[in-house]
Amino acid sequence: MPEARVGSAEPGFRVAELTVADRGSGPNAAVALEFAGQLDAEGIGLLWERAMRAARRARRQSLALDLSRVTLVDTAGAAFLIAIEAAHGGEVSLQGEQEQFHALLDRVRAAGTTLPPPVKLPPLRLRDIAGAAWRASANGIAFLGEAVLALVRLPRNPRVLRAQDLLNYIDQAGVRSLPLVVLLGFLIGLILAFQSAVPMQRFGADLYVANLVAISLLRELGPLLAAVILAGRTGSAFAAEIGTMKVNQEVDALVTMGLDPMTMLVLPRLIAAMLVMPVMTMVLDIAGLLGMTVVMMAFGFPLVTVANQVVGAVTLTDLFEGLVKALCFGAVVAAIGCREGLGTGVGPRAVGLAATGAVVGGIVSTIVLDGVFALLIFRLGL
Amino acid sequence: MSEGEPTEIRATDVAQRFGARTIFEHVSFTVAPGEVFVILGGSGCGKSTLMKQLIGLLTPSAGDIVIRGRTITGREGEAGRQAVLREIGVMFQSGALFGSMTLLENVMLPMEMYTDLPLSAREAVARVKLGLVGLGDAAALMPAEISGGMAKRAGIARAMALDPPLLFLDEPSAGLDPITSAGLDRLILDLRRDLGATFVVVTHELASILAIADRCIMLDRAARGLIAEGDPRRLRDESDNPTVRAFFRREVLAPAAA
């Protein structure tokens, strides 16, 4: 109703008004809610709280809704009137409503405004949480087991592992991440050397910064940082790719072609991640050592001294330990990414959730696994 | 399987429940070789769920499904399902083409996995399939570059890649304009005539049903199961079930009957 809309621009004008009036007395006492103006989303916003309060207060009396001065009722207005009736709970009469409101009110009433009873969530118990955590980790292990099974079965039907896919993922996960790996490794080496050089200098031990950085990079930081890069760049990409395929029913299509998604989608990604991670780690180690060397040379140590110091500090075992860790981290990060992707629910939000889960899960399990490695290496006395 | 006429599909007392919610139960039907069999019904009646059961993506809560003589449900279901998968082709609602491959590569993939054809032969066969569905000149396009109708036709071409005797099509004409939709109906009838394949089609497009279906079953949400079976033209003219009549006459069902 355009003519009614014009008025709302005037200062001090309210699109809707409500007057609560008591009518009659004794057993015939009634409360009348007299509405005026437009009962649309704007109008009912002004009146909602007052009307509901008045309706609840009038529970014991009968309630009349006077619409004679109302110019417009839309679906929001009809819902408002029905909500008033529900709040009152008893007998409600409509007065002065125009013919055209009638049909709308009937339709809105027929559409049903009763809500289903709210779903009662069971109380949160520690045992349930522990059970869920246990099932989640069991599922993760089962997934890895299925992947291994797919790998074992592969020789029976080698063509399902497409070389083109594998190369593709190696490129995506490894080759394209090298600039980032070099940059991050260099900076970490630089920062680590610089930060430790200051306190070491106090003891005149600044030469041993080279040892410190070399050992921590090769044994710990190299594989860990490479895994974090893999989780952020590649794990999330795996989850999003497979998740989108799931949402588009492409995974279903594979299954109905008799092609196992585990072999077709997961295995090439898993193998690619396991192949590139040691290389990424090695590159990161070298870049880090270079960064450290730059700092050491700035402190006045010649290159030969630094190099000798590094060679004396670390052994090949240190390097291999890091590379083996990197291989395992790669497998876990890729597996979690793929699992999150295959577990994607319905709708566009699910893909985002899967990607997030892949990054968080990848980083957390990498660090947990690193702890396990530390314990193992300590026990084995390596 | 019972003796007598051969059947492509025999479903007996199939049910699907999700938790306490029953989608349908006591659904039984058979599909004869070479027929176009349509599963129809309103939204939410479970026709796509039923198709998921038939193609082995979902195990029914109860009942048996036998496809081409092999039971795909129950304890020995897994082996049967794996064997049946080579004999069926499925077109999904949106085509479900692999987004990282061209249309040609999509059609070639099943052949690459299951046949020993050399690359040039696979390409030639895949081109023929794409030509059959009228996409001969779109072979090099990626799925993201084509329209919805083309994606569905490419999905049919991929479903036919290994020339399966049994094809499942999920809503081939949903969301398409009437001309494209009629073209797809024509394509289904042509393929049936030329290849002798059996088609199971899930749809709720009235025009499409009347054009292609030899026989149909109708599911209903309120009845939680099968409410009609037979020739759709006879159902339209003779059924005394109010829901069936309303469906075929595009009427609004009176609330009491729903």
Keywords:
heterodimer, A: 382 residues, alpha/beta, Transcription Regulator spoIIAA, four-stranded mixed sheet, 13 helices, disordered N terminus, B: Rossmann fold, six-stranded mixed sheet, 9 helices, 24% strand, globular
The strands making up the biggest β-sheet of chain B line up spatially as 6-7-8-3-9-10
Q: What's the number of helices of chain B?
A: 9
Helix/strand structural class of chain A: alpha/beta
Shape of chain A: elongated
Distance between termini of chain A? 84 Å
Number of discrete domains of chain A: 2
- Strands of the biggest beta sheet of chain A: in what spatial order? 1-2-3-4
- The coarse silhouette of chain B is globular
Beta-strand proportion of chain A:
5-15%
Question: At the third CATH level, what is the topology name of the largest domain in chain B?
Answer: Rossmann fold
What is the number of beta strands of chain B?
10
Radius of gyration of chain B: 19 Å
**Main sheet makeup of chain B:** 6 strands, mixed
Number of helices of chain A: 13
How many domains, in number, for the residues of chain B?
2
What is the CATH architecture term of the largest domain in chain B? Answer: 3-Layer(aba) Sandwich
Show the helix and strand layout.
The complex is a heterodimer of chains A (382) and B (258).
Chain A: H1 2-7, E1 16-23, E2 30-39, H2 41-57, E3 62-73, H3 75-88, E4 92-95, H4 99-110, H5 126-153, H6 163-173, H7 178-202, H8 209-247, H9 250-256, H10 261-298, H11 303-313, H12 316-342, H13 348-380
Helix pairs in contact in A: 2-3, 3-4, 5-10, 5-12, 6-10, 7-8, 7-10, 8-10, 8-11, 8-12, 8-13, 10-12, 12-13
Chain B: E1 9-18, E2 21-31, E3 36-41, H1 47-54, E4 62-67, E5 70-71, H2 77-85, E6 88-91, H3 103-114, H4 119-132, H5 148-159, E7 166-170, H6 178-195, E8 198-202, H7 206-212, E9 215-220, E10 225-230, H8 232-238, H9 242-249
Helix pairs in contact in B: 3-4, 3-5, 4-5, 6-7, 8-9
